[in-house]
Amino acid sequence: MVTAICMRNDTSWTVFQRGQALMHALRDGPLARSALLACLGGVYPDGDAGRRMLDRDLPRLSELGIMIERSATRPPIYTLRATPQVFSADELRTLALIRDTFGSRHPQAAQVHALLQRLTADLGPTQQRGYARRQATTAPVQPAIDYTPYAALITRLEDYIARQQTVSLTYAPAYKPTFTTHARVEPYDIEFYERHFYLVAYTHASQQVQDFRIDRIQADSLQLVPGGRWSHRRRSSLRFRYRLAAELAQGEISQRFEEQKVVEQLPNGDVIIEARGRSAFFIVQTLLRYRANAELLWPMHLRERMAREAAAIAALYD
User: Fold this and answer.
1) Were both Cys, which of 20, 87, 130, 134 would link to 91 (CB 3.0–4.6 Å)?
2) Furthest C-alpha separation in the chain
């Protein structure tokens, strides 16, 4: 990218872009002014105007963290001094976005923020202000509970997934937190949804791909199964239909499910949607967010489960 900067023949450069070009030109050692300007091509204007602009840039580049020294000799010689990492405005915004995305309860929050601290510790004053600026656009990944105590467990699971190894574990399901079950599983992925981390794994007992919430896995129970290498099996997703109210069906419909498509438009503007969901729990919990604007129609066992959930909620406010 910087080489291309040196070859352009116009003077519409920001100070930062000129600084990048200067660092590239001086990367192999000091250069006299004439040789430096010749290398830079059209980054600086010709003649005295270019020489004056170059010298005016030096203190401004110093604020950005780009340290270029001008000798007192005639002609002057320019030397690139040991320079910390320097980022463009877009790169600083990206780093700030990463900083604001990983909430304190994310299991890798400490590692992410330690890396960002190392990358930005030596920024110049101007770049420090740019990095510290509040970002208007954020998409925080903040789990519902503190997952930092489970960072070591997640690291172990990631290692087993990378090596495609079968493991045994003990799990406490949400519907019976005092009851534990033992399972032999083939771990495939770790996913974040519904503000929790889940191990996606094929379970030998059920012969299905299931989700295990990470904080409900007993870490001390996790053991390798000798000779248990696996080949990835596909999840058997559930096909279902639901009705979405007209006020939410206008424009593009949120793609909350897989293979989602409108199969019928009702006279009142409501639509019937057919889709696939990863599990009955996921389908019911996602549709509950629509409140009375969505109705689960089919299959009947899912509709009955939704009816039980709705009745339980109604009973709380009876």
Assistant:
1) 87
2) 90
* Amino acid residing at 44: Y
Compute the Cα dihedral for 61, 66, 71, 77 and give only its sign.
negative
Alpha helices in 102-169 (DSSP H): 109-120, 125-132, 151-162
Peptide bond into 299 cis (omega under 30): yes
CB 95, CB 88: distance < 8 Å: no
* DSSP collapsed to 3 states, 35-85: HHHHHHCCCCCCHHHHHHHHHHHHHHHHHHCCCEEECCCCCCEEEECCCCC
Element spanning 193, H or E = strand 181-193
Residue 248 to residue 213: CA distance in whole angstroms: 31
pLDDT tens string for the chain (318 positions)?
A: 333 334 343 445 688 888 888 988 888 889 999 999 998 888 898 889 989 999 999 998 888 778 889 999 989 999 988 666 778 888 899 999 999 999 899 999 999 999 999 888 878 888 888 899 888 888 888 999 999 999 999 999 999 999 999 999 999 876 666 677 888 999 999 999 889 999 999 998 888 888 999 999 999 999 988 876 777 787 778 999 999 999 888 877 878 898 999 999 999 999 999 999 988 888 998 999 999 999 999 999 999 999 999 999 999 987
CA neighbor of 103 nearest in space, from 138, 151, 143, 135: 143
Separation between Cα atoms, residue 194 and residue 29, nearest integer Å: 54
Which pTM was predicted? Answer: 0.67
What CA–CA distance (Å, rounded) separates 281 from 287?
10
Locus of tokens 């996602």: 286
Inter-residue contact 173 to 215 (CB < 8 Å):
no
The side-by-side arrangement of strands in the sheet containing 196-203 is 208-213, 196-203, 181-193, 165-171, 223-229
Cβ contact 213:198 at 8 Å: yes
